[in-house]
Amino acid sequence: MELSKFLDKIYPKLLSEKTKEKSERVILWIALISFIIHLLIIALIKFDIIFIYEPSNLLKNPIAAIYTPFSFILVYEVYLLIYYLPKSTSTYVSKQYEIIALIIIRRLFKDLSDLSLTSNWFNIKNDLQFTYDLVASILLFYLIYLFHIHRIKVYETIKNNKNYSSSISKFINAKKWIATALVPLLIFVALYSFLNWSIGVFQTSDTNPISFKNINNIFFEQFFNILIIADVILLLFSFFHTDEFHKVMRNSGFIISTILIRISFSVTGITNTALIVFAILFGLLMLVIHNKFEKQLVAERIAKNNE
Asked: Does residue 195 come out as left (phi exceeding 0), alpha (psi in the -120 to 50 range) or beta?
């Protein structure tokens, strides 16, 4: 009872509609200010007002300045992912897909500043990655669109079992606990990653402990590790709510999809892009088959009730 009261007290403070709106305004202001600061730093370096030994590519081209505000917006998208976790599993998963798609878009902004516009386009690694990401962003946009369509295809079911409402209530409470725990983790990982990033930008490659080869993965690689753990816990709790085969398959498929996204952070090139596309395609197919399964079960129940 005490734990339930604690949840009722802290959950609205972290994940209410009002908190979401406030967080959105704060993040938008931070994104705007960070964009201006980034542009100013690039200008100061260009006119030799400040000197940084071997500055990062992010400090050489004004186009790359878009990368910084986009990073803060992505952190807010992660908050939205947590916000939707207790409300809908499919919405929560779709937010994961939106985040990885936006990471690719952010990567395009960064890579635009490094393009080598020559006739050897397909022989230059950076230009090839840019091409992969352009094609992948279109594919992901369409796959996420299809996922949204199938996500809203909710079929009404006949539930006369009184224990059903009780079980789903417990499952939602479990999701609220997980979401509440994820918020401070999000803040900690975001601050830690940002501080490391800030230190790394202004350090030379000899003294910098951070590798900037995978700068696009900073924060998100760690956070997707946390998401995998959260997803597995959710799957285990879901067994208290239902043990229907098609729902277990769908939820397990979503976890595999998240793991594939996490694995994509550890590889580069076309393998990275292909893993991301396949992860979302796998999740979409799992949802489509689940809906067909659900539709068939509903039809069978209606037919049985009409006998």
From this structure: alpha
